[in-house]
Task: inverse folding
């Protein structure tokens, strides 16, 4: 079993290594003869996009092709902005939850990003170009997030979305109160164990953070006044991210389901003077959409998942549309590496369940999550000056028959379906060679040891002694 796991890890690294050569260098590219779904300025038929140095330089029907530019003929194809997944757990190595404590704001997803996770490539092949990689929901206050671009073949640091506002994961309900978690025998149950305990943990943490903030403000005031021999307050890496929230420097992404808990966290945030950036999942958001909009929070939800646990029983497929109608900025997320491969289809469901327009549906996975993550000035729509994060489909992306043909990030082609299909034979050959090597190595005779004795233990009386009293090796 261990050898099998190692084999698949090695294969993923092999695919990752091949991709280093796949991603074309950013230069001057023109996508021609496409139907361009700009999201913000309507649909352009038989249009072209000029990309220069990773940015969109021109969009329209009469775009001139510069000398030496690479031309992508997109006749019969559709181009849309790269899909943005506002709730992802891909590319995380070694577990997504630090669940041993109720407040884990000192840990960061950035520290455990795994650039060789094959799910990055699979989601890229589904049109995803940006993902908000979140800590899990085991804690009322969880770890710090990492917004990444799916630059398959890059290092973990190179995948980070430079300039994206930092964020943090909060969680309400069944997960942080550990409803479905049984501790090891003899291990005490972690606090909190109730919903009121969850909100108490959050309130206590911000009470401590506000005092910590005051101590540092006083130190800086006295230091600026020239007072000598000052000793700065002791740094607290758990409280520093919470101070950033109080100062409007870090976004809160709150896992939530029930309407009463959503209102509960809104009241607490307003008590301490900060804003929730997004309510994640927010399956009962339609019940309190007016209050969410008044607070200024976004909502990142599922298209139609429901009843997979008790607090999801009141979910309805109209949720995204109803919140949109009441002025909430809504996105559709995956929370699943597999679901992320067809977020375009998940967005399309809001046209069936709620009557959203084509543009409103596209916004659910492009411009709206960009707004929620504070990166809408860079991505989320096809406009001059924005990053050239684009997806080419063979059919309209809101169709179940649409298949991704190419994906560009910062003007580089990171996924090309034709190249992928062509190189599968080469990868299959390499896979076969690795499998044969594994089979040969596993077939070798393994060293044996006397039954009933652990390795390294001293021999039992008489064990390993032959007739001539010679001890066996």
Result:
């Amino acid at each position: 079993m261990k050898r099998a796991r190692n084999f698949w890890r090695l294969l993923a690294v092999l695919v990752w290594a091949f991709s280093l050569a796949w991603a074309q260098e950013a230069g001057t590219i023109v996508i021609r003869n496409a139907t361009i779904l700009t999201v913000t300025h309507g649909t352009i038929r038989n249009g072209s996009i000029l990309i220069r140095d990773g940015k969109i330089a021109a969009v329209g029907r009469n775009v001139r092709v510069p000398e030496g530019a690479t031309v992508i003929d997109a006749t019969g194809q559709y181009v849309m902005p790269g899909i943005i997944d506002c709730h992802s757990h891909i590319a995380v190595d070694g577990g997504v939850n630090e669940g041993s404590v109720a407040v884990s704001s000192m840990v960061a997803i950035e520290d455990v990003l795994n650039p060789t996770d094959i799910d990055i490539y699979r989601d890229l092949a589904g049109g995803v170009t940006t993902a908000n990689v979140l800590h899990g929901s085991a804690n009322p206050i969880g770890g710090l997030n990492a917004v990444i671009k799916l630059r398959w073949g890059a290092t973990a640091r190179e995948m980070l979305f430079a300039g994206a506002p930092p964020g943090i994961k909060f969680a309400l309900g069944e997960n942080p109160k550990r409803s479905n978690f049984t501790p090891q025998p003899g291990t005490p149950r972690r606090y909190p164990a109730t919903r009121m305990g969850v909100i108490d943990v959050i309130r206590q943490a911000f009470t401590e953070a506000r005092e910590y903030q005051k101590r540092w403000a006083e130190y800086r005031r006295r230091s600026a006044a020239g007072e000598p021999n000052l000793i700065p307050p002791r740094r607290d890496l758990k409280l520093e991210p919470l101070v950033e929230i109080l100062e409007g420097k870090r976004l809160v992404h709150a896992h939530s389901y029930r309407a009463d808990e959503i209102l509960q966290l809104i009241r607490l945030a307003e008590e301490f003077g900060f804003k929730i950036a997004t309510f994640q999942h927010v399956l009962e958001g339609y019940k309190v959409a007016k209050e969410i909009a008044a607070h200024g929070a976004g909502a990142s939800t599922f298209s139609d998942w429901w009843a997979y646990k008790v607090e999801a029983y009141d979910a309805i497929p109209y949720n995204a549309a109803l919140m949109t109608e009441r002025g909430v900025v809504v996105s559709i997320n995956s929370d699943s590496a597999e679901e992320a491969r067809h977020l375009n289809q998940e967005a399309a469901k809001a046209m069936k369940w709620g009557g959203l327009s084509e543009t409103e549906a596209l916004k659910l996975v492009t411009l709206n999550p960009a707004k929620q993550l504070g990166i809408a000035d860079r991505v989320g729509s096809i406009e001059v000056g924005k990053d050239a994060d684009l997806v080419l489909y063979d059919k309209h992306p809101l169709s179940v028959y649409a298949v991704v043909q190419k994906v560009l990030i910062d003007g580089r082609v990171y996924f090309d379906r034709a190249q992928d299909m062509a190189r599968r034979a080469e990868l299959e050959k390499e896979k076969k060679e690795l499998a044969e090597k594994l089979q040969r190595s596993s077939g070798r005779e393994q060293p044996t040891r006397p039954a009933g004795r652990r390795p390294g233990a001293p021999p039992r009386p008489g064990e390993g002694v032959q007739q001539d009293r010679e001890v066996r090796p």
